[in-house]
Design goal:
By secondary structure, the chain is mainly alpha-helical. It has one domain (about 5-95): MazG-like (Helix Hairpins, Orthogonal Bundle). The protein is about 70% helix and about 10% strand. It contains 4 helices and 2 strands. It has a two-stranded antiparallel ribbon. The longest helix has 20 residues, at about 25-45.
Length: about 100
């Protein structure tokens, strides 16, 4: 089991133990979005808890992946392989993915 997959399981164990949501997927997406907003605010206001807020994002993301039955480690590795093969071109000052 990968380290990230083990963390996903640990996040889920904690969610269950604390009585947090483990079934309402739209709610989890909204809670994740809220954590992103909190991290942005911490960064914007130069608060010292930016690391903690980023950790919250990761925890919610891992929990959502676990609820959905996904191996986030494998998904990230696969997506990075795709991204490595992509090429981009700048048009009118905007970086665009080249369609191939």
């Amino acid at each position: 089991m990968s380290h990230l997959k083990a963390l996903q399981a640990k996040v889920m164990t904690n969610k269950i133990a604390k009585g947090f949501n483990t079934t309402d997927i739209p709610l989890e997406f909204m809670l994740l979005t809220e954590e992103v907003a909190e991290a942005f605010e911490a960064w914007r206001k130069k608060k010292p808890d930016i690391g903690e807020e980023l950790a919250d994002i990761m925890i919610y993301l891992m929990g959502l992946a676990e609820i959905l039955g996904l191996d986030l480690d494998a998904e990230v590795a696969a997506k990075m392989a795709i991204n490595e093969k992509r090429t981009y071109v700048r048009k009118n000052g905007v970086l665009l993915k080249e369609e191939g």
